Amino acid sequence: MDYIKAIAKLFHLENSSLFLRLDKNDFLKGLIVAVLSLPVSAIYTQINGWITTNQWNAFDWRDIVKGMAIALFSYLTKNLLTPSQTQPVLKDQELVSK
């Protein structure tokens, strides 16, 4: 996990953007997520083709790019709708006392 922290420091990815705002770091992290989703999309299309036709097919790049775009869009949407600071969870006793 140290290499992930090193990459985060290299690209200055520690900071998070404000609620309902996106920063350039959000787009960079989204592109990293999209690139990491490439093998998942490629493996999925191969397995799906093998199950339906019982033979290995050529890569369907259109589906792979769609998967990457969906991963990028999902990540950016999550960052857009997530507050920058998390709220502490109240325990049962604190709820009763309020």
Sheet having the most strands: none
Sum up the overall morphology in one term. elongated
Order of helices and strands: HHHH
What is the helix tally?
A: 4
Radius of gyration: 19 Å
**Global structural class:** mainly alpha
Assembly context of the chains: single chain
Strand residues, percent: under 5%
Give the helix/strand layout.
Elements (H helix, E strand, L loop, with lengths): L1 H9 L13 H30 L7 H21 L10 H6 L1
Helix pairs in contact: 2-3
How would you describe what is shown here?
- 7% of the residues are buried.
- The protein is an all-alpha fold.
- The protein is built from four helices and no strands.
Features:
mainly alpha; 67% helix; 0% strand; 98 residues
Compact description:
The chain is mostly helical.
